[in-house]
Amino acid sequence: MTTTTPVLSGETTGEPAPRTAVGRVRKKLNTRTATTVSIVIALLWTVPTFGLLLSSFRPEDEIKTTGWWTFFTNPQMTFENYNEVLFGRSSSSGQLANYFINSLVITIPSVLFPVAFAALAAYALSWIKFRGRDWLYIGIFSLQIVPLQMALVPLLSFFSRGVSLGGITLMPAWDLDSEQKFIQVWFAHTCFALPFAVFLLHNFVSQLPGELMEAARVDGAGHSKIFRSIVLPLITPALASLAIFQFLWVWNDLLVALIFAGGGRQTAPLTVRLAELAGTRGGEWQRLTAGAFVSIVIPLVVFLSLQRYFVRGLLTGSVKG
């Protein structure tokens, strides 16, 4: 004689579990309608950029008299706009080649320094026990709410006192040579980036399995060995994501570079020169369109080369188990 045991509501029976709210939302986002809407939004977002690209290759007279969409009925192309903004010798031309180098000199250290310091700080705040660790992390996290503009005056005051950093005296931008101006910009960007960088990397480092750390300690590894051999390889996607964010922020920055590096040709980045390309009456559109695409070449290369790490960094930690 066999008996049948009733199945209580909510008990596992081998059948698919009821869909959760997240599952229902995910299913709706995977529909054909959602895909179509996404494609339409992407196309609408791309149209202005496409029009800017076409305008950068159009002659000056055409740009100033007709819209970019007339290119398809009367196609005229020239590389004169790019030649003028990159290598023009007149004072009104772009001469962006030199400013392009300045942007690279400013951006690369301003990315490497905060990423390196934030990785070390995130490991210390996650896996090294010391008094006041949690309060220190809260303090770093709270610094994100301070507007950048409010910190400019204290930093300028800090530099104006002639502070010595690594044997180099930091002074106001107008009293410095090129090397010292670059150091001030690196210092400023590093300070502004660290709160968010530490917060972001701490979320990744703190989720690493504790068993790995314990096994490494049993094998006699110190903190430096654990950080180099275990932590860094595992948080590479997070480091790449942070590097992309910081690179785009510094490359497109105008305010910090203008204040701490000045507007001279020896130290000013692309953004400073692009702001001057419009001319006194704001009518030099042919230079602006070409200059805009010169300025986005490097960010596009950086993003496309690190795209797979960027996606992995966004997804890391979002799903457990």
Which terms would index this structure?
321 residues; mainly alpha; MetI-like fold; 2 domains; two-stranded antiparallel sheet; 15 helices; 66% helix; globular
Structure description:
- It is a single chain.
- A hairpin with a 2-residue loop joins strand 1 and strand 2.
- Helix 2 (32-56) packs across helix 14, helix 4 packs across helix 14 (285-305) and helix 5 (96-127) runs antiparallel to helix 11 (236-251).
- The chain has 2 domains: 26-78, no CATH class; 96-315, MetI-like fold (Orthogonal Bundle), CATH 1.10.3720.10.
- Strands 1-2 form a two-stranded antiparallel sheet.
- The longest helix has 32 residues, at 96-127.
- It is globular.
- The protein has 15 helices and 2 strands.
- The protein is mainly alpha-helical and 321 residues long.
In a nutshell, what does this entry contain?
By secondary structure, the chain is mainly alpha-helical.
Mean pLDDT: 78
How does the helix and strand content classify structurally? Answer: mainly alpha
Per CATH, the superfamily of the largest domain is MetI-like
What strand line-up does the widest sheet have?
A: 1-2
Biggest sheet details: 2 strands, antiparallel
